């Protein structure tokens, strides 16, 4: 556990848990030696549950649970010595908690000194942010070898409406079926991807350094990354699978890779409008842009632009949505 490894840095200090949920990370922090933990969450039902769990663990004197958004908060201390948060959502950025974590960093995390250089400040923060960095990954997958893809198959939704059509004798084919298919193709599908379905090499899209990233960048610019992946055979690519990993100050890494033990984050699958034929060592290259819609900040839009073997004739751009 990353907090346990950081016992020396936490010993006798104040810890802030942003989006504490049930308070489990706050409890880990208190047991790792933090003098006091401030646990914040904007959801009242969660903070009530966290208070009960903290009390049941005999830590009510060491952990203060507050029902408040971090942006609106006013802690009884000016600064804290470390910050922990399980802010990650599906495709890393869903639910848009990262901007709140960065706001908490700027508002509460103690700086090394008033004369510290930008580099010194960043290094100081990297030792006190849990996690301190995050990386997004992408690869191409094929439904032909993916057992789980059948659960996401757009034809399942169409078959459902065909059954209703037969039952009630209402015509629901043609344009209606096309609309169902298009709706399916515009969504981000959260599922466990069978590693056998991955038919290209994987690529790191981008790495976010939480020590230097600005909250306003996430809200106004989103997150951008580029990729280049190679086919691992003669395959039909159905879409892309996206996952992430986060890194902690002492080198621990939490990965949501399809090659690792599944987590509750699973992976995020996006489907092409039609399969793309690739031969051994063909190259798919492009860019991905993650943004939060201005009218639904917790939601996530993923825009993908790509082409095959640098041929502009194959260039395609699609936008996908992940909503609550």
TrEMBL record:
<dbReference type="InterPro" id="IPR029063">
    <property type="entry name" value="SAM-dependent_MTases_sf"/>
</dbReference>
<dbReference type="InterPro" id="IPR055135">
    <property type="entry name" value="PRMT_dom"/>
</dbReference>
<dbReference type="GO" id="GO:0016274">
    <property type="term" value="F:protein-arginine N-methyltransferase activity"/>
</dbReference>
<feature type="domain" description="Methyltransferase">
    <location>
        <begin position="16"/>
        <end position="110"/>
    </location>
</feature>
<dbReference type="InterPro" id="IPR025799">
    <property type="entry name" value="Arg_MeTrfase"/>
</dbReference>
<dbReference type="GO" id="GO:0042054">
    <property type="term" value="F:histone methyltransferase activity"/>
</dbReference>
<protein>
    <submittedName>
        <fullName>Methyltransf_25 domain-containing protein</fullName>
    </submittedName>
</protein>
<dbReference type="Pfam" id="PF13649">
    <property type="entry name" value="Methyltransf_25"/>
</dbReference>
<feature type="domain" description="Protein arginine N-methyltransferase">
    <location>
        <begin position="155"/>
        <end position="309"/>
    </location>
</feature>
<dbReference type="InterPro" id="IPR041698">
    <property type="entry name" value="Methyltransf_25"/>
</dbReference>
<dbReference type="Pfam" id="PF22528">
    <property type="entry name" value="PRMT_C"/>
</dbReference>
<keyword id="KW-0489">Methyltransferase</keyword>
<keyword id="KW-0949">S-adenosyl-L-methionine</keyword>
<keyword id="KW-0808">Transferase</keyword>
<dbReference type="GO" id="GO:0032259">
    <property type="term" value="P:methylation"/>
</dbReference>
């Amino acid at each position: 556990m990353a907090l346990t490894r950081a016992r020396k840095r936490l010993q006798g200090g104040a810890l802030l848990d942003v989006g504490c949920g049930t308070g489990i990370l706050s409890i880990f922090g208190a047991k790792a030696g933090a003098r006091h933990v401030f646990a914040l969450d904007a959801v009242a039902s969660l903070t009530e549950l966290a208070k009960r769990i903290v009390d049941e663990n005999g830590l009510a004197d060491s952990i203060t649970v507050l029902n408040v958004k971090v942006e609106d908060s006013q802690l009884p201390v000016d600064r804290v010595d470390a910050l922990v948060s399980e802010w990650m959502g599906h495709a890393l950025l869903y639910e848009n908690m990262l901007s709140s974590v960065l706001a908490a960093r700027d508002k509460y995390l103690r700086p090394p000194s008033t004369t510290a250089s930008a580099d010194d400040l960043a290094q100081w923060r990297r030792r006190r942010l849990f996690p301190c960095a995050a990386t997004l990954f992408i690869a191409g997958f094929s439904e032909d070898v993916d057992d789980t893809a059948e659960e996401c198959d757009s034809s399942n939704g169409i078959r459902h409406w065909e059954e209703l059509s037969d039952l009630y004798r209402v015509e629901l084919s043609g344009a209606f079926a096309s609309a169902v298919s298009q709706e399916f193709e515009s969504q981000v599908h959260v599922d466990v991807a069978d590693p056998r379905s991955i038919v290209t090499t994987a690529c790191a899209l981008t790495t976010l350094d939480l020590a230097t990233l600005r909250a306003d960048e996430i809200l106004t610019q989103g997150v951008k990354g580029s990729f280049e992946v190679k086919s691992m055979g003669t395959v039909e690519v159905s879409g892309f699978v996206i996952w992430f990993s986060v890194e902690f100050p002492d080198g621990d890494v939490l990965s949501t890779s399809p090659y690792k033990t599944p987590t509750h984050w699973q992976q995020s699958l996006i489907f092409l409008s039609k399969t793309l034929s690739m031969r051994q060592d063909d190259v798919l290259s492009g860019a991905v842009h993650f943004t939060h819609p201005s009218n639904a900040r917790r939601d996530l839009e993923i825009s993908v632009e790509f082409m095959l073997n640098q041929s502009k004739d194959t260039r395609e751009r699609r936008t996908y949505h992940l909503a609550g």
